[in-house]
Amino acid sequence: MRHLKTLDYLIFLLALSAVAASAAWSSSDRSGEAMVEVEAAGQKYVLPLSVDTDLVLEGPVGKTVLEIHDGVAAVTHSDCRDNICVAAGGISHSSEWIACLPNRVFIRITGGKSSEGGADAVAF
Amino acid sequence: MPLPSDTRSGRAEIISIFGALCLFLSAIEYLIPKPMPFFRLGLANLPLLLGLRFLSPVDLLLVLLLKVLGQGLVNGTLASYVFLFSFAGSAASLAAMSLVYRLGRNSVSLIGVSLFGAMASSLVQLVLAVTFIFGSAAKLMAPFSLGSGLITGLLVGWFAQVFAERSEWLAAVEARYRDEAAPKGGGEAP
């Protein structure tokens, strides 16, 4: 095009590389280290999924025990009535969660691999 | 749009015309549906781009102020944090455009200037979004935001270039502005 001059091409290349760099940046470490986010009694804890931990959470109806072992987080005991949180089993993939409503405990996994692409309960 | 030739304050008039143009273009842009919230044509950048050629830095800043105020009014974001984003983006864009225009006087066209400004604006808004509002989640939209800046920057720049070459109105405005500035500027004209 007759309008374009040297610096224009330079700026265009610069802009293109900025877009490319941002694309690389946004697709990189999207799967950072998986963390376990725990909300209980108005408190929020963030724990690494890779470190084995036992955590006793106090809530309105008593204790809820969260265990993180071998990259799986699970509620092993809870003082609530229905124990749905215990029945939920272990979670290990991004955005999976366990909740104990009576005891006001919410646990979910952020970062790390998502379970997308794997078999879920329906596909299985 | 003829300029009445008997007004004394040509400078104030030209600034307000450019400001009004920004307001008008913001309204036009508001009519165009956005596929994504951060997608902006940046039409309101046109007056700044055209003014870059002859307006003094102070006058450019005044037009910038009118532009962000006008956009805030039209979009209804004047009293929200979005306004700060808009202001920061516009200011960064103007700074970048002035810089590249002055440094590359004869080796850059308005297309390059516009593209550079659009990228600066997108980049600054992205940094603000990451640090203050959305955290690292904002980086998911980084390539889209910068990519749309690339395309719209080119389009607006191309329009500005063609317009600047052909418009008799702009030439008249420029001549008028220089006339007015010459006696006060102490003969700094080249």
Describe the overall structure:
The complex is a heterodimer of chains A (124) and B (190). With 124 residues, chain A is α+β, with helices and mostly antiparallel strands. Chain A has two helices and eight strands; from the N terminus they run αβββββαβββ. A four-stranded antiparallel sheet of chain A has the order 2-1-8-7, with no helix packed on it. Chain A has a four-stranded antiparallel sheet with strand order 3-4-5-6. In chain A, β7 and β8 form a beta hairpin. Chain A is rod-shaped, with a radius of gyration of 22 Å. Chain A starts with 5 loop residues before the first helix and ends in a 14-residue tail after the last strand. The mean pLDDT of chain A is 83. Chain B has seven helices and no strands. The longest helix of chain B is centred in the last third of the chain and has 25 residues, at 142-166. Chain B is globular. Residues 185-190 of chain B have low confidence and may be disordered. Chains A and B meet through α1 of A and α5 and α6 of B.
Q: Report the uncertain regions of chain B.
A: 185-190
Give the percentage of residues in beta strands of chain B.
Answer: under 5%
Q: Percentage of helical residues of chain A?
A: 10-25%
Q: Give the tally of β-strands of chain B.
A: 0
Amino- and carboxy-terminal Cα gap of chain B: 28 Å
Largest interface: A-B, 20 and 30 residues
Count of helical segments of chain A?
2
Largest sheet of chain A: 4 strands, antiparallel
Helix-strand sequence of chain B: HHHHHHH
Distance between the termini of chain A: 58 Å
Mean pLDDT of chain B: 85
- Mean pLDDT of chain A, to the nearest integer, reads 83
Number of helices of chain B: 7
Radius of gyration of chain A from CA coordinates? 22 Å
Q: Helix coverage percent of residues of chain B?
A: over 70%
Question: Gyration radius of chain B, to the nearest Å?
Answer: 17 Å
Helices and strands of chain A, in N-to-C order? HEEEEEHEEE
* Strand order in space, largest sheet of chain A: 2-1-8-7
Oligomer: heterodimer
What is the overall shape of chain A? Answer: rod-shaped
